[in-house]
Amino acid sequence: MTGTDSKTVVNSWNEWDPLKHVIVGRADGCCIPPSEPASDPKIPADSDMLGMYGPRSDESVEKANAQLDNLAGILEAHGVRVDRPEPMDFSQAIATPDWEHGSMFGCQPPRDVILTLGSEMLEATMSYRSRWFEYLCYRPLLQRYYNEDPNMRHEAAPKPRLTNASYKEDYLSDDITIDERLELVASKDFVTTEEEPLFDAADCLRFGRDLVVQHGFTTNLKGADWLQRHFPDHRVHTVNFPGDPYPIHIDATFTPLRPGLIINNPDRRIADDCRGLFERNDWEIVDAARPAHNEPPALCYSSVWLSMNVLMIDEKTVCAEASEVHQLEQLDKFGFNVIPVPFRDAYPFGGGLHCATTDVYREGTCQDYFPKA
Fold this sequence. Notes:
Helices cover 18% and strands 20% of the residues. The protein is an alpha/beta fold. The protein has a single domain (19-362), classed as L-arginine/glycine Amidinotransferase, Chain A, CATH 3.75.10. It starts with 18 loop residues before the first strand and ends in an 11-residue tail after the last strand.
């Protein structure tokens, strides 16, 4: 199913209203890009990613695509229309007048690139040079949605130059310890500077009138400010997670499941000065279950906490990774209809179930979930 059987309506205000139309990524052609200032701080000293670059193996791509196709089939079986991006030759070198880079990345995680809010689909700036052109994989879909939905707004945030001025020189030493990393994060000292607005869409969680945006390696304060100016009728709240030594994307750290309930990574609890918004409005923040795995799959950028990177089909139905038995059990105890989805073969290509999708349409309207803002 390619989504060509019906006209598009773009509408999505949060992470849990009934999902009816979604984009699911593809693994085709995915590469491990060469080193760059944005990605270097993300890779732990003991990671098998260190020094690796080049196309992913055909076998790994085939396994990842099988799980992505299976996810698409599960969603379609639940009445969700599924569209897919158009991969390109990610192995080709890319350049702007300011820099050159040896390859691109891929198009498994549309959540990183496209932020849907109401009838708008917004292309994020992207803070990695290797991902600067990734929006092109989604342009055919966004152009079709624009043609089919007279109310759809296709917007693009200002493309950043990503010169060396956008990154702190020599941000980390080779022998930095985890404790020293955590000290930097706690003091909000990140690799990105405030040279220009930077944000990845996966740093943004949608709560109706409110956007919760993580300030970290991939989104700076100027990026959050740009979002506030761009969405003047919304409230943008920047948050931090002092326990995360690699603060990149919020959706393996802080996951809203339904109105009033959020699971929070117990190793990366939300900063005390950011909790007030949720406490004043009687939202419960619960420690997420521990992952079932002690390490991520081979050649995977992400942490074991993709266990909590779940996809809500509606307020009662959730897709979670099939082998994450502790997370499945916790979701079941919360009263959800839990759909186990095998997905660890897709993790190395850009993340979990939430990462690998982005909303086009969820039933529902813009609500104020934080009246005591």
